[in-house]
Design brief:
Chain lengths: 231, 231
DNA sequence: TTACTTAGTGTAAAATATACACACTATATT
DNA sequence: AATATAGTGTGTATATTTTACACTAAGTAA
């Protein structure tokens, strides 16, 4: 590499806002830091981008090293570049988000000793976070709240088979708003992206609900049309 | 500053996709580079972020130095972080966009000798661009195309007083789609964010159209409600 | 006065969104 | 066996929004 570019005493980092849904609660993944600064504080999983890796790659690697989660597809949503966001120098961070299924048991096993543990925490019950991570989280939450209003992304958070009530609860949590059951069902079923299964919920002490699956094929078709303004 | 953070032989940069609308055409601002690499190539206005300035600030400064445009409010839309996007080293760039009024005469007077000139170029007639700037432009265009579908941002591109036909043309250009005049007018007027003026177009060799103004107050109110899902 | 060019307008049909309440069913409890 | 409990599942009328579609009015230029 030539050196026409000025050197720059700064680093890029990645921070991840990973959403999960469990127990009727929307959660995000937090780590407990094991290093200064902010040792023993809670923080979003985040670390420094290596010199020779793309930021997308860095995001995947860092999430894996800090939480043990692999093969999570993330999208970037904002880059935070204020001068004093990190106490030790100039750090610009690209924030990524993802929504994943918790299947009851996504194991969290940090590889790096940079963190002492990783846990799922309800977004309604977040501790104080290191750095400007509260700001980053808020923007990530805003992002999915917006997105869910025009794309049915909620499925990514649910188990493969889910009931309409679960789906509705998830919408309600993300939108912070009660929805009408009949209208919600009508709307969702009208999208035509749900496949009704021949199965019912099990282990509940009341009438069991039908299970549904998300139909990816039809979903992609739906998104050809998108965007208002007919003619 | 302490030095616990690793040094990193890399730079942050900013690239700007600045949209304007003139003559029924959607344009963006390009510079001709006066320095290697890509000397004499066309490129998006972009340069390196200083150590002690926020990226938002850098965006403003860089746009000014490279094109002479001041006080343009920009939003970031994506960060490009592939490893080999710059031939001289690792450069991660935060891309910003803005939509501005051309008022016929936004003067372009580059301050920096890093560029030899700056010009407005129709998006339908772009030359080959330096670095990965074509990719950056595409994503920026996609961004405003999406955005205009749910937010009436088009006003930012028009002169203060405009006709409904001009507004419609702009929508058509951004959406690459013909729209129906009656439906378009109905919809726009229904938003209630246009103020009809007591003035007409001048200097046209046909029936002059009424002029309208964009009503910012009402616009913000409209955006309280936003987001579907009634109850 | 005529020809030309763009402005400006209405309506019916279809699709979508909203508001709203009660009976059904599976299980657990007595 | 009877009952309580808790969540499932459904229909309809109304309002709103979206779509398709074509002609007349106004101003200018010759």
């Amino acid at each position: 590499m030539e050196t026409l570019l000025p050197k720059f005493d700064s680093v890029f980092s990645i921070d991840c806002v990973i959403f999960g849904f469990d127990d009727g609660e929307l959660k995000i993944l937090l780590i407990e830091r094991n290093k200064e600064p902010f040792k023993d504080w809670w923080a979003l999983p985040g670390y420094i981008v290596e010199q020779d890796e793309s930021i997308d790659h860095a995001a995947e690697r860092i999430l894996y090293e800090l939480t043990g989660l692999r093969d999570i597809y993330m999208d970037q949503f904002y880059t935070f570049g204020d001068v004093n966001r990190h106490p030790q120098g100039r750090v610009i961070t690209v924030a990524y988000y993802a929504m994943i299924r918790l299947n009851g048991n996504k194991e969290l096993r940090p590889i790096s000793n940079y963190v002492s543990k990783a846990v799922w925490t309800s977004v309604n019950d977040l501790p104080k976070l290191a750095f400007d991570h509260e700001k980053i989280f808020s923007r990530g939450f805003e992002k999915i709240r917006n997105k869910i209003s025009y794309q049915p992304i909620a499925f990514e958070l649910l188990p493969e088979k889910f009931t309409l009530t679960q789906l509705q609860q998830l919408y309600e949590v993300i939108l912070s708003k009660k929805l009408d059951k009949r209208n919600f069902r009508k709307k969702m079923l009208n999208y035509g992206i749900l496949k009704e299964l021949d199965e019912k919920q099990k282990g509940v002490s009341y009438r069991a609900a039908k299970l549904y699956k998300f139909d990816k094929r039809k979903y992609s078709k739906l998104f050809q049309k998108e965007l208002t303004f007919g003619k």
